Structures are given as C-alpha cells and as structure tokens.
Amino acid sequence: MKILMTLLVTLGLSAAVFAIDSEKAFDDPVQQARYEELIAEVRCVTCQNQNIKDSNAFIAADLRREIRRLMTEGKSNDEIGEFLVSRYGDFVLYRPRMTGKSLILWLAPFVLLLFAGVAIVRVVRHRMSLPLDEQTEEGGAQ
Hints:
The chain is mainly α. 11% of the residues are buried. It is flat and about 75 Å long. It has helices spanning 2-13, 29-40, 58-72, 77-88, 103-129, 134-138.
C-alpha cells in the first residue's frame, strides 16, 4: 500500500514537469494574471476547440510567445486582439468582437428565443380556446 501511495504522489508531483507553458512567468503578478487571461481567451488554430493556454500544439506555443512579446512591448489587450484577428481571423477569439459580420451571431440566440416564446404563447392560447371534449366532462368513457 505504501508503494502505491508513493507512486501516486510521485505521479501527481511530476505533472508540473509536463507544464504546457514553459516560459518564465512575469515578475509582476498583475502582468502575469493579464497574460493568463489573454491566453485563456485565444483559441488554438490547430486544435480549434481548445485555448492556447491548455494546448500543446506548436502553433499554440508560438502564439503564447507572440502574446508575451506584445505584452512586453506595452501593447494593450485590444491591440493584441487586433493583431491576432488580423493574422488568424475572428475565429481565433473565443468571444468574437461585435462587428457587422458577427452581429447576426450575437443576436441570433435572442431572436430565436423571442420566436420560440411567441410560438409557445400562441399554441397555449389556441389550446385554451378549444372546447373541452365531452368525454372529459362526463368523467369517463361511454
């Protein structure tokens, strides 16, 4: 049992060796938090359903280095986002910006909910206006 526990603890501690972002952390904790937030909001263009913070693809490592470089140059989050969008398109951001093209994507869920609500109200009102069946009024079958 001791050997099993030792093995589990060793494996648990060795996870730090396989960390994805091997770059040196920023000295400023605020800057590091900003970096962590940025890389969590950028989609890996290879993995497509994973952010670059969790991806171990080569392009994700390149994007992390690029974001780190832009941050050390003093670029704002918006400038970094513009750089990424100009290079990879709106797809690279998990939360795409509101533009003319993406306005439909932002409004579609609300429009669909509105139509669904109207349809439900109409069906319920129509059902309430129907007369009751004679069998249900008499309390059973004939």
